Amino acid sequence: MSIHVVMGYGPAGAATAQLLVEKGHTVKVVTRTGRSPEDGIEHVACDAADAEGLKEAVRGAEAIHQCAAPPYQRWGRDWPGLVASVCAAAEDSGAVLVMLGNLYGYGPVEGPLTEDLPLAATGVKGRVRAAGWEQAKKLHDAGRIRAVEVRASDFFGPGVTDGGHLAGRVLPRLLAAKAVSALGDPDAEHSWSYVPDVARAMVEVAGEERALGRAWHVPTSTARSAREMVERLTGHAGTEPVEVRKVPPFALVIGGLFSPVLRELKEVRHQFDRGFVMDASAYEAEFTVRPTPIDEQIGATVDWWRGRLERAAGK
User: Fold this and answer.
1) How confident is the model at residue 37 (pLDDT cuts 50, 70, 90)?
2) Please, are residues 20 and 203 in contact by the beta-carbon 8 Å criterion?
């Protein structure tokens, strides 16, 4: 089978790498520090912003799955160099470039989010994510690379920890039957992209020539409020219902004095203060991936977190 390179080994990168292994591909994962070898996966240490080093790491690859991301508070400074390096590696190798994107680039929007909306964000993080795809698309249109972007909403599922809004700040408390806090309006509809579905979409479009040259939204379950998701999670966990509190705006301001990540959330508060619904009908009309049934998502997430907490407690 062919060689696939996965850049980054966060939740989406790890899920994509494992899925590629299951499909029989040779998989190389590129991270800044590298890791010990795993079954079917070669780990390579390389700074993604090092264009020459990255060119060597991806040589011979059929596809590059770009799942790497700088620390949240450094997006404005580090994304441009990362994208430039990845595009240079894709051009040098001839590999298909599959970029994992998000919805920041649209900025505040009324109604469902679709791929044909303009990338009109004005904030630093939204603009830098939009500019990254615009750069890759320009090179694609010029015939220099073959590129596609897969856009996901907020990650949910096994492997999602500190970076998820229904993860590290929610699951441990929920499983202990303690109240949880939600950013913005806990009753606003919100799209949550299940990480295994993100990986399935990344892998599928890499092998579809007709997918290239545009962005696609990850097939994602019906939008549900944070409160409904917490209720479903507690229901599967068998714990008592818990209170879902709204994080007051002043708490974010105060927290931002000490936490760079909390400070950066100000730009994307609109995604949680009102409905934030992603439409993936364009993808589903063309390709085969469909959202995992919500009950399976909930069950797998609770079970993963319960096992993680038990291991941490030495049980």
Assistant:
1) confident
2) yes
pTM: 0.95
For residues 150-170, one letter each, b for 16 or more C-beta atoms within 10 angstroms of the residue's C-beta and e for the rest, the string is: bbbbbbbbbbbeeebbbbebb
pLDDT of 285 strictly over 90:
yes
Strands 26-31 and 41-45, sheet pairing: parallel
The answer to whether residues 4 and 28 touch, using CB atoms and an 8 Å cutoff, is: yes
Query: Phi and psi at residue 231, in whole multiples of 5°?
Result: -60, -40
Show the beta-strand stretches assigned E in the chain: 3-7, 26-31, 41-45, 63-66, 96-101, 146-151, 154-156, 180-182, 192-194, 215-217, 244-246
Q: How many CB atoms lie within 10 A of CB 310?
A: 11
Residue 313 neighbours by CB under 8 Å, 6+ apart = none
Helices (H), 171-278: 171-175, 195-206, 226-237, 249-256, 260-264, 270-273
Would you call 257 helix, strand, or coil by DSSP? coil
| pLDDT tens, residue by residue, 72-87 | 889 999 999 999 999 9
Residue 194 β-bridge partners: 156
| Burial track 69-87 (b if 16+ CB lie within 10 A, e otherwise) | bbeeeebeebbeebbebbb
Q: Give me the pLDDT at residue 32, please.
A: 93
- Altogether, the residues listed in the chain come to a count of 315
63 by Cβ neighbours in 10 Å (0-12 / 13-18 / 19+) ranks as buried
Does position 118 have pLDDT exceeding 70, yes or no? yes
- DSSP string over 28-48: EEEESS----BTTEEEEE--T
Distance of CA 306 to the CA centre of its chain: 22
Longest dimension (CA), the chain: 57
Residue 257 has pLDDT above 50, yes or no: no
- Check residues 35 and 214 and name the one with the higher pLDDT: 214
